[in-house]
Amino acid sequence: MRLSTVILPIHRWDEGQKTWRRAEDLGFHAAYTYDHLSWRTFRDEPWFGAVPTLTAAATATQSVRLGTLVTSPNFRHPVTLAKELISLDDISGGRITLGIGAGGTGFDATALGQEPWTPRERADRFAEFVALLDRLLTEDAVSYEGNFYAAHEARNIPGCAQRPRLPFAVAATGPRGLRLAARYGQAWVTTGDPKLYENGTPEQSVQALRAQTEKLADACAAAGRDASALDKVLLTGFTPDRGRPLESLDAFVDFAGRHRELGFTEIVIHWPIPDSDFAADQKVFERIAMEAPSQLT
User: Fold this and answer.
1) 231 forms bridges with which residues in the sheet?
2) Strand 231-235 to strand 187-190: parallel, antiparallel, or no bridges (unpaired)?
3) What integer pLDDT is reported at residue 158 of this predicted model?
4) Are strands 150-155 and 231-235 parallel, antiparallel or unpaired?
5) Which residues of the chain have a pLDDT value below 50?
6) Which of 5, 46, 207, 294 is the most buried (most CB within 10 A)?
7) What angle do CA 77, 50, 52 make, to 5 degrees?
């Protein structure tokens, strides 16, 4: 099981770069960031763009994988996003993973002046977005006319540093999203069942995650893929456990071990942010980063 972190883009780079370098020094498999225009309680606080932040992180680090967790169609277009990703993959020396999801109804959904999309429209757009992005990242020239997106002789030479393209980590829990993960994903991402966050129990969360992994296996079987070929990524902080796994090394190892038994291959923990939902003791966090992986082999 691999251990990764997600670093929210809330610090000016003269300070933020220290966090990304420290993430590499601590041995994290990957360091991700959220791809939002603003997010929840941070809406009126500093918040920087994901692609420029990852570009800077790529030049400040050497080996840690980098990526979004996650990008969505809410304010992205596949043609422009593909160009940015190819450039970012090149700058990083082939260390980028694209976490990608359908998006939601938060601030990103209306920042461009549109009405929030319905769940069905989000799913429809997501399916078209992923399929077109896959083509844009693997073909030199793409023309396409869809219901939501279009490309006219879009050129993406020389393509990604990673071949045939950088990996997709598809965030999904519903049947249509899971089918996309099975078809296009090199990894699958979940945060658990959101309905359990407020009043559920850790045991109920484990059962819900087990059901999700089983549905993913079914989607993979229908697509002719072996589900074991996909990495399974749990972004923590949104299950009923909340911040308890980061209270001690033992608590984290117990949490991660229970989810490893479900087939998860990567656990992502939030870099501590004081006075927020992601508050945690920095020393304990760093001990987990350095010592937990060896206990989960």
Assistant:
1) 187
2) parallel
3) 97
4) unpaired
5) none
6) 5
7) 100
pLDDT, residue 297, reads 82
Residues recorded for the chain: 297
Reading the block at residue 220, the tokens are 């993979």
Which helix or strand (DSSP H or E) is residue 291 part of? helix 282-295
pLDDT tens-digit readout, 60-92: 999 999 999 999 999 999 999 999 999 999 999
pLDDT value, residue 283: 98
* 191 φ, ψ (degrees, to nearest 5): -110, 10
Q: Where are the alpha helices (DSSP H) in 96-155?
A: 119-138
Residue 275 burial (10 A CB sphere; 0-12, 13-18, 19+) = exposed
pLDDT tens profile 19-43: 999 999 999 999 999 999 999 999 9
DSSP helix/strand/coil, 183: helix
Q: Which SS3 state, helix, strand or coil, does residue 130 take?
A: helix
